[in-house]
Write a structure and sequence with these properties.
Elements lengths: L6 H14 L6 H4 L1 E6 L5 E7 L2 E8 L2 E8 L4 E6 L4 E6 L18 H8 L2 E4 L3 E3 L2 E9 L5 E7 L5 E10 L5 E14 L13 E3 L2 H5 L1
Parallel strand pairs: 6-13
Antiparallel strand pairs: 1-2, 1-12, 2-3, 3-4, 4-5, 5-6, 7-9, 8-9, 9-10, 10-11, 11-12
Amino acid sequence: MRKRSYLPAALLAATLLALACGGPKTVGRDGYRGILVYSKEDRFGIAVRGERVRVSGTVDGFEIVRIVRPDLRKSWQFRPSTRRIFESAWGPTDEPVPGYPLETRFDSAAYADRFGGTIRRIDDGTHGLHPCERWRMTLPSGDLATIWVARDLDRLPVRIEHSKKDAGDEYQAFTDAQLLDVLVGAPEKLFEPPKGYEKVDSYEKLSK
């Protein structure tokens, strides 16, 4: 008697279950979490879902968390160690991480226009396990920025290397920001300010 294979049926069931639940999670739809690294000392926890952003890091020896909510036109900064929180208004120029695009579907023309530079597609590359398209932007100063955009993460920028010319007229890396350990999905609760914290009316009072 020939043995019956249940593999096709199992695959069909898994596919139907994924469709019933809205399909597999994606960075563009469900957000992501990761670590943005500038150096061994400068590391920031990142969570993004749409326009909502959460950034956490160590400042002056203490952890500070910032939540940016353009949908509410509000921003919060708080210190878990002192349980203090500072609320402020959000504006279009208020960037959680200045200069680093945290959104998916990288728009090369808009990014170059923002800095007054010119941009072109260069060779492909890999960052971690992510296959990337790479873009080279020339800034008005003559500096270069190379942007790695991960295809498997809905075209999310995962690395930006800034290069300057040295005394010998050769380009050398000046800064190298890398988005590491990217996980698909960012729970809604990450973008809600904590309850039970003491409200202060300035950043100076928050940092005391």
